[in-house]
Design goal:
232 residues; mainly alpha
Length: 232
């Protein structure tokens, strides 16, 4: 008799790095393109535009890395504190913890006898793991990884920020704002669709929402550049 293997790929397994990657790439593209468009709209020359864009790339990548690391580290600290508290409770009041686990399984639809049996067996195998997963909602799939989030955010921010810099370096000087804005919107559509597809969501919806907010950011910085460029 042949054995059938049933392999499933769930999007939740990607959530940690996917969120950081999509956020980083979108932010890098939007913020750097907006900076380039704003400086160009103020009447600056190509060297000044490229310097401002490159500075924005470096500053943004480091800011994303630091922000993600601090944010996810805070989540990690909270998880570790909860696990330490749970470890103490398992040591001090094992009977109460077993009853608590049993009540959780009863609440999920098991009858009292089966819930108790499941709780006992899981406690014997890995008591802390069972409570972490079923009481606290902490599992290996969704455990916070600060360094991973920081590195992915910095790298993807830089990758997204490269596009407007390349376009600004080759576009006609008088049309840098328009061409950078146009290519940025196309890039945002692609990123939004890609991120939505990788996360199992609707491609069109993901592309539209990213593009709309990117267009607003580009318009706002272009307006600032034109106003202060005229004033200068």
């Amino acid at each position: 008799m042949s054995r059938l293997t049933h392999a499933e790929i769930h999007m939740v397994h990607r959530i940690g790095w996917l969120r950081a990657a999509v956020l980083g790439a979108n932010d890098g593209l939007v913020s750097t393109a907006s900076l380039v468009v704003g400086v160009a709209a103020a009447g600056s020359g190509r060297p000044e535009i490229l310097i401002a864009g490159l500075a924005g790339l470096v500053a943004g990548a480091m800011s994303m890395a630091a922000g993600e690391y601090v944010s996810v580290s805070s989540q990690t600290d909270a998880e570790q504190a909860d696990l330490a508290r749970e470890t103490k409770e398992l040591k001090d009041t094992p009977a109460a913890e077993l009853e608590e686990l049993t009540r959780i399984y009863v609440g999920r639809g098991l009858d009292d006898g089966l819930a108790r049996q499941v709780a006992v067996q899981l406690t014997q195998k890995d008591a802390l793991g069972a409570h972490a997963r079923d009481e606290l909602g902490i599992s290996e799939t969704v455990t916070a990884r600060p360094i991973q989030a920081a590195v992915v955010s910095a790298m993807t921010f830089a990758a997204g920020a490269v596009l407007p810099l390349i376009v600004a370096s080759v576009a006609p000087a008088a049309q840098i704002s328009v061409i950078v804005a146009g290519t940025t919107l196309v890039g945002l559509m692609a990123l939004g669709g890609l991120g939505a597809s990788a996360g199992g969501a609707g491609i069109v919806k993901g592309a539209v929402r990213v593009t709309v907010w990117g267009a607003l950011a580009l318009a706002a910085t272009a307006l600032v550049g034109m106003v202060f460029g005229v004033a200068a």
